[in-house]
From TrEMBL:
A GO BP entry: phospholipid biosynthetic process
Organism (species): Corynebacterium hadale
Gene Ontology molecular functions: magnesium ion binding; phosphotransferase activity, for other substituted phosphate groups
EC number(s) reported in the record: 2.7.8.-
Pathway: Phospholipid metabolism; phosphatidylinositol phosphate biosynthesis; Lipid metabolism
Bilayer topology annotation: Multi-pass membrane protein
Protein name: Phosphatidylinositol phosphate synthase
Cited function: Catalyzes the conjugation of the 1'-hydroxyl group of D-myo-inositol-3-phosphate (also named L-myo-inositol-1-phosphate) with a lipid tail of cytidine diphosphate diacylglycerol (CDP-DAG), forming phosphatidylinositol phosphate (PIP) and CMP. PIP is a precursor of phosphatidylinositol (PI) which is an essential lipid required for cell wall formation.
Subcellular location(s) of the protein: Cell membrane
Similarity field: Belongs to the CDP-alcohol phosphatidyltransferase class-I family.
Free-text comment on the cofactor: Contains a di-nuclear catalytic Mg(2+) center.
Amino acid sequence: MLSVHGRKPAAVVVKPVAKALLKVGMTPNVTTLVGTAATVLASVVLIPTGHLVWAALLSIFFAAFDMVDGTMARLRGGGTAFGATLDASCDRITDGALFAAIAMWLIYVDNAQPYNVAVCLAVLVLSQVISYVKARGEAGGLRIVGGLIERPERLIIALAGLFLEGFGVHHAIEVSLWVLLVGSVFTVGQRLLYAARDPKSDGKLAPPAGA
C-alpha cells in the first residue's frame, strides 16, 4: 500500500537527497549497490549478535536508498531496464538477509520455539513470492498493483519488531513475524486474484525459454 500511496509524502525528503547525490557524481545503480551492501551487513552482523536497536535504525536509514535510487533515475530522465532489474534483485537480497538474520537470532540468541523459526522462514519465502507474482504477472502483460503487505510495510513491521525487542519488549519479534505471515499469505492470494481477474489473464503465452 505504501508503495502506491506513500511516494508523494516521501518525495519531500527523498528528492533533495537524490539531487545532492547526483551532484557529487553518484549514479542510481551505485546507490542501489551501496544501500544493498550496507543493509545486508547491518542485518547479518548486528541481528545475530543481539544488537537489535542498531540493526533496526541502520536498516531503516539504508532502506531509504531504495527510494533515492529511483528518484535519481527519474531526475536523469528515466531509469533503464538493467537498473530496474538490479534494483529488484537487490531488494530480494536484502529481504533474504534480513529474515535469515532474524532466524539466526531466534535460534542462537533467543532459543525460540521451532515453530517461530519456521514462521520466520515462511515469511522469508513469502516475501519472495509476493514480488515474484507481480513480476511474473507483469511479464505476461497483466496489471498487478498494490497489495496489503508490500515491501515497505514488510520492512516497517519487521524493523519495528526488532526495535521494540531491543528495548526489552519481549516477543515483539515473534509477534511481528506472525503479523507478517498472515499478511503475506493474504497478499499472495490478493495478487493472484488480481492476476486472475485481469482481462488479459486468458491470453496465450509462448513456451518459456528457461528459468
